[in-house]
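Worked example 3 (structure in, sequence out).
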């Protein structure tokens, strides 16, 4: 009881004082959840203590609850590490694991002490098969006994039964009777003098009764006696299940105090007629049965030991014959104090029993002389004399047996409390045919010797002679000794000595208390709930009344002004009308549900009003906006917008198949574009209004009739496009989201190949090819989803176009038409891609910098490598442009694995195969055949189309040949580049140009990739050759030219003269320059062009020098096949003043004298006879004074003479007029032959320039 009170006080403290408990400003138990957790924990601890659960488990539960409730408020540093529920669960799991580990260790220690504890868990012992025991009779016996006792309780009023607990269970004491089969238990009870009200039991009093089979309830007015069968002691193992059944039935029907005491009946015959070992076995069985009753029923009860059949002792009848009926009712035995504890007892149980029985023996012995004097018969006195001796022998056996049954045990409550209430000697009947003979008497010893007997017991049971008549035998049940007062004043009066089963008794008391408290609490709570509910609902109605007033004003304002900006407010106010603070209208808390809850009615009315506003005000606006959108689309002649708007308008007006999801999505999109959704603040609010509107059955109630003229006009515009075009637009829009990802150039050629490839089409480069127009797009999307989607869209198109009543087009034909549109677009996309693939342009110097040619080498090496991006591009392109598998696909019906050849299946197969054939043929015509050139180029044979992993798979194809040619070109470029690096000028073949010419016949994308690369590499190669040639010229003839002629006359205005022989060796035929040109450049240079150019190139770098040399050779070298310098010229005096009588011109020994007269030209050669050493001009006058002369010497004197003229005039006929002033006289000489073309030879020589980096003039 104290435990229950403690639990109630602790629970009240947790609930009412918990919110005030805390540290600082933290109140862990302020909320409901932690207090409920601790109340539940307190209850668990209460039950754990009650049932003896180990303490470490209780501590673990307390720790887990503390972690869950208190640790979220623990601050470590700047964080609360256990604020998260997941972290707390981890901590609780760790505590549980430690507890489990400790429990395992605890169990291991227990098993180390007693290994047998684990046998029932680990081993299944094979017990001997036992017969099924029917316990129904036992349960029925005890159940009937309870029903009989319940009659006392059934007479009480109902109201009294409610307040009075089941006291009837304990008002009538129950006593269990134990004994062996022939101990006389039933006769003892029926002879006890108790009043047995049942007629069938009363009829058995004073008669011989058959042995009890299982158990029997004997009802008396003072007690109920449960008579058990003797087999529970005689055969304990065989009857164990029945015995357990009796105890379980008692515990079930009498859980508090199942029995008030146990009566143990032991007959004198058993005590004196059995051996020592048999008595020890009997004592052990009795002790076991008493322990079973104690442990199973949970009660401590007194045990009454009755030594029955005392009349079988010798002299009993003679000794007690003089007792009256009243004397025979008294108690003859020993009664011990029951409440006495062991610690207060002065002597041991065995000594105390022996002492008390010794007193009884002394009393008999002392009374023998008196009784012998009262009897006259010698035989009676003789028999009476043996009684004290036999009783002493019986006392010894009783002492031994009871010592073994009731000695104190250290392991149960018998250590502290005695259970033996008393020892009583009784006789329920006195049969005359049985007697006990003391084997210790002299006469009996002689009898045993003569009979060759060796008895092990103190006495022997024998049958008496039947000299007595039948009258004596019939009187055997007429007298009872020492029973009536024993049952009336001792046993039945001791019914309250039993210690109740405190657990069960506390349970019933707790249930009774809890039930009454619950009823009172429920009544108080209901009254409080009604009051609170009434107040809540009354306040709710007041708020709703205020809201209704505001809503009425808003509705009136909208009805007058039709301001669409007010409608969102009206709808929201109507929708939120039932809302009230934290109240959940559809699922209110308990404090709202008692009394008249009005939230549901208000919500229903508000819902109806909200639906009315949606249908009356919102839907007409939606319908009007849809019509406006359709009108604008018709005006703009936008077929796509017309179709979408017409479809929406038909749905709203009831002319089309309604799709709520589509309508909500389209209306929302249109209102967002027009800005009409802005007053609704949030898109989700507007969508919610639309869904609520279209959920109603009569959402079109306030709609208008459709505009037939507008619909006809819209359909007319749409009809301008074919059905196929319209359907393909719809299919394309619907399947675009389901298509694979777009294919980019990176995916086509590989991750790293995008460093060398690009697309000239910027749109494809940025966005890639739409996934719908790919191999995967066709096979995964179009092929699988086109048929069902097209069927659905065809049905939609029919009612949108108003053709629902007209016959539908053939779906297979329509599907092929739509597929054709798709395939044409597929082909166009891939033609665009393949024709726009290019190499990324590289800005490299093609002159002396070798980086330009190195880039081409790198590109070629990448293209001809094993993992060539060009191969990847080819394989991918072939795969993407080959949509039909060459292997015939199995018909769909083959998957059914049907072997039947029925007509229906055959026809279905034919239809399927026919359509598949038409579809494949259409794909081949529109896609595959258009890329046959690419496929044949890559694979060599269309039958072997497919992608491979290496070049060997493409062996023999044109692409293999192309790759081989590119590989050869790569090798040539590497060799040439290496030669250039070494300073050599290798011969350049025209193989690259042949490949370039062949590339013009290749399909896209190869010609657009290879041709620019080859053309660029050829150009760079030529530039390299030219650069190397120029460098070689500079290093060879350039050095000679600079050393011999640079800065020398006639190549420069200098006093230093170039040697004539050097000029002839350098410029002449077979000279230095001529030999170099013929050896290195003659085959490479086109001398017919002006200026000179390298063959096959526009470049003439370094050739100007040789062209100048050739011009000089042609102008100066007219002698000895161009090996010697020779000039042939003519001179004539064109004007000579009168003051000069004669003009003498001497050109290297050839003189001409001119006097005034006819002008005739004179012809000269240079060098002349003097080998070009002198040129002079002498004028003779009339006076005798000396005239100045012009005298020039040296191999280049002729050129200096021509240059020394004061004025030079160029005639159209190629002649020159040289004007000299001799003094004041002017002389004009006409010279012919000193020109090369239109240029003076001196100027020709002056324009000559030696090869050098600085291109300096000489």
């Amino acid at each position: 009881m104290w435990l229950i009170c403690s639990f109630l006080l602790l629970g009240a403290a947790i609930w009412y004082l918990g919110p005030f408990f805390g540290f600082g400003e933290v109140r862990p138990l302020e909320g409901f959840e932690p207090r409920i957790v601790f109340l539940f924990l307190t209850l668990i601890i209460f039950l754990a203590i009650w049932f003896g659960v180990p303490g470490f488990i209780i501590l673990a539960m307390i720790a887990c609850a503390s972690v869950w409730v208190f640790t979220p408020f623990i601050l470590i540093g700047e964080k609360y590490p256990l604020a998260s529920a997941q972290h707390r669960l981890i901590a609780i799991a760790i505590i549980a694991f430690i507890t489990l580990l400790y429990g395992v260790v605890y169990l291991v220690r227990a098993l180390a002490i007693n290994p047998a504890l684990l046998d029932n868990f680990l081993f299944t012992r094979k017990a001997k098969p036992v017969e099924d025991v029917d316990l129904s009779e036992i349960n029925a016996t005890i159940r009937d006994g309870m029903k009989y006792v319940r009659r006392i309780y059934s007479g009480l009023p109902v109201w009294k039964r409610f307040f009075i607990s089941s006291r009837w269970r304990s008002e009538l004491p129950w006593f269990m009777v134990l004994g062996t089969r022939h101990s006389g238990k039933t006769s003892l009870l029926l002879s006890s003098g108790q009043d047995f009200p049942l007629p069938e039991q009363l009829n058995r009093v004073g008669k011989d009764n058959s042995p009890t089979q299982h158990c029997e309830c004997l009802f008396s007015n003072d007690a109920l006696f449960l008579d058990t069968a003797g087999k529970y002691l005689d055969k304990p193992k065989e009857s164990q299940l029945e015995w357990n059944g009796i105890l379980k039935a008692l515990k079930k029907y009498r859980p508090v105090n199942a029995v008030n005491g146990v009566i143990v009946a032991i007959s004198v015959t058993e005590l004196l007629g059995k051996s020592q070992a048999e008595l020890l076995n009997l004592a052990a069985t009795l002790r076991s049965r008493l322990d079973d009753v104690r442990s199973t029923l949970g009660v401590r009860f007194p045990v009454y030991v009755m030594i029955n059949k005392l009349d079988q002792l010798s002299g009993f009848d003679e000794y007690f014959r003089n007792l009256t009926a009243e004397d025979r009712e008294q108690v003859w035995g020993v009664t011990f104090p029951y409440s006495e504890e062991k610690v207060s007892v002065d002597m041991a149980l065995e000594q105390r029993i022996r002492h008390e029985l010794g007193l009884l023996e002394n009393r008999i012995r002392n009374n023998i002389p008196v009784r012998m004097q009262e009897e006259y018969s010698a035989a009676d006195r003789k028999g009476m004399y043996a009684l004290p001796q036999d009783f002493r022998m019986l006392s010894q056996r009783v002492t031994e047996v009871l010592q073994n049954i009731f000695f104190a045990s250290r392991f149960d409550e018998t250590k502290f409390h005695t259970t033996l209430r008393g020892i009583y000697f009784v006789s329920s009947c006195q049969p005359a045919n049985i007697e006990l003979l003391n084997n210790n008497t002299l006469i009996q010893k002689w009898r045993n010797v003569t009979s060759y007997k060796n008895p092990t017991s103190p006495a022997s049971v024998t049958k008496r002679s039947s000299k007595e008549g039948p009258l004596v035998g019939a009187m055997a049940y007429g007298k009872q000794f020492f029973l009536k007062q024993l049952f009336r004043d001792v046993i039945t009066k001791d019914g309250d000595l039993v210690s109740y089963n405190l657990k069960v008794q506390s349970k019933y008391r707790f249930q009774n208390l809890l039930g009454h408290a619950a009823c009172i609490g429920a009544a108080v709570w209901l009254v409080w709930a009604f009051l609170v509910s009434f107040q809540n609902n009354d306040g709710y109605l007041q708020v709703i009344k205020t809201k209704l007033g505001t809503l009425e004003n808003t509705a009136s304002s909208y009805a007058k002004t039709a301001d669409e900006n007010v409608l969102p407010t009206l709808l929201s106010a109507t929708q939120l009308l039932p809302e009230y603070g934290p109240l959940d209208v559809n699922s209110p808390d308990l404090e709202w549900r008692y009394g008249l809850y009005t939230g549901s009615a208000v919500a229903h009315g508000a819902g109806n009003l909200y639906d009315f506003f949606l249908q009356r005000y919102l839907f007409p606006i939606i319908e009007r906006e849809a019509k406006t959108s359709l009108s604008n689309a018709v005006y703009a002649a936008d077929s796509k917008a017309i179709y979408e708007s017409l479809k929406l308008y038909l749905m709203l007006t009831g002319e089309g198949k309604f799709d709520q999801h589509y309508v909500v999505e389209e209306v929302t999109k249109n209102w967002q574009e027009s800005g009409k959704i802005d007053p609704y603040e949030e898109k989700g609010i507007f969508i919610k209004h639309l869904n609520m509107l279209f959920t109603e059955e009569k959402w079109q109630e306030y709609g208008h009739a459709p505009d037939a003229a507008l619909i006809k006009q819209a359909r007319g515009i749409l009809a301008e496009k074919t059905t196929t075009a319209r359907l393909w637009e719809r299919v394309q829009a619907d399947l675009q989201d389901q298509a694979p990802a777009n294919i980019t150039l990176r995916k086509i050629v590989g991750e790293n190949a995008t460093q060398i490839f690009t697309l000239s089409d910027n749109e494809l480069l940025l966005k890639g090819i739409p996934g719908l127009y790919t191999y995967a797009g066709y096979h995964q999307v179009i092929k699988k989803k086109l048929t069902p989607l097209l069927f659905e869209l065809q049905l939609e198109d029919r009612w949108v176009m108003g053709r629902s009543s007209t016959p539908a087009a053939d779906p297979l034909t329509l599907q092929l038409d739509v597929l054709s549109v798709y395939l044409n677009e597929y082909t166009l996309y891939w033609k665009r891609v393949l024709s726009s693939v290019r190499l990324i342009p590289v800005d490299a110097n093609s002159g002396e910098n070798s980086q330009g040619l190195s880039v081409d080498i790198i590109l070629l090496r990448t293209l001809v490598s094993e993992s060539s991006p060009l191969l990847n591009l080819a394989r991918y392109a072939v795969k993407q442009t080959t949509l039909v598998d060459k292997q015939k696909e199995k018909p769909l019906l083959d998957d059914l694995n049907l072997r039947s050849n029925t007509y229906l299946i055959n026809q279905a197969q034919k239809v399927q195969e026919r359509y598949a054939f038409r579809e494949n043929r259409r794909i081949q015509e529109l896609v595959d055949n258009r890329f046959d050139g690419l496929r044949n180029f890559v694979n060599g044979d269309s039958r072997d189309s497919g992608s491979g992993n290496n070049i060997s798979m493409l062996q023999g194809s044109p692409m293999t040949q192309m790759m081989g040619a590119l590989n050869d070109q790569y090798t040539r470029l590497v060799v040439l580049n290496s030669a250039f690096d070494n300073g050599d000028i290798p011969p350049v073949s025209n193989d690259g140009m042949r490949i370039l010419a062949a590339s013009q016949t290749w399909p896209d994308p190869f010609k657009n990739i290879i041709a620019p690369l080859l053309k660029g590499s050829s150009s760079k190669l030529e530039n390299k050759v030219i650069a190397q040639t120029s460098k070689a010229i500079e290093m060879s003839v350039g050095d000679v030219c600079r050393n011999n002629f640079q800065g020398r006359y006639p190549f420069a205005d200098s006093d230093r003269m170039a040697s004539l022989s050097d000029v002839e060796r350098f410029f002449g035929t077979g000279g230095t320059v001529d030999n170099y040109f013929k050896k290195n450049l003659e085959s490479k240079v086109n001398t017919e062009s002006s200026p000179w150019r390298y063959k096959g190139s526009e470049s003439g770098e370094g050739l100007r020098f040789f062209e100048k040399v050739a011009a000089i050779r042609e102008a100066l070298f007219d002698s000895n096949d161009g090996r010697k310098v020779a000039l042939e010229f003519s001179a004539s005096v064109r004007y000579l003043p009168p003051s000069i009588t004669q003009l003498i011109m001497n050109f290297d020994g050839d003189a001409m004298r001119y006097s005034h007269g006819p002008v005739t030209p004179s012809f000269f050669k240079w060098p002349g006879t003097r080998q070009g050493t002198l040129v002079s001009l002498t004028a003779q006058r009339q006076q005798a004074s000396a005239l100045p002369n012009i005298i020039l010497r040296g191999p280049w004197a002729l050129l200096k003479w021509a240059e020394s003229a004061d004025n030079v005039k160029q005639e159209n006929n190629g002649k020159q007029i040289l004007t000299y002033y001799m003094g004041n006289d002017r002389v004009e000489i006409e010279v012919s032959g000193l020109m090369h073309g239109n240029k003076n030879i001196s100027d020709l020589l002056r324009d000559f320039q030696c090869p050098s980096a600085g291109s300096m003039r000489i």
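Notes: Residues 477 and 586 are 83 Å apart (CA to CA). The two ends are 136 Å apart (CA to CA).
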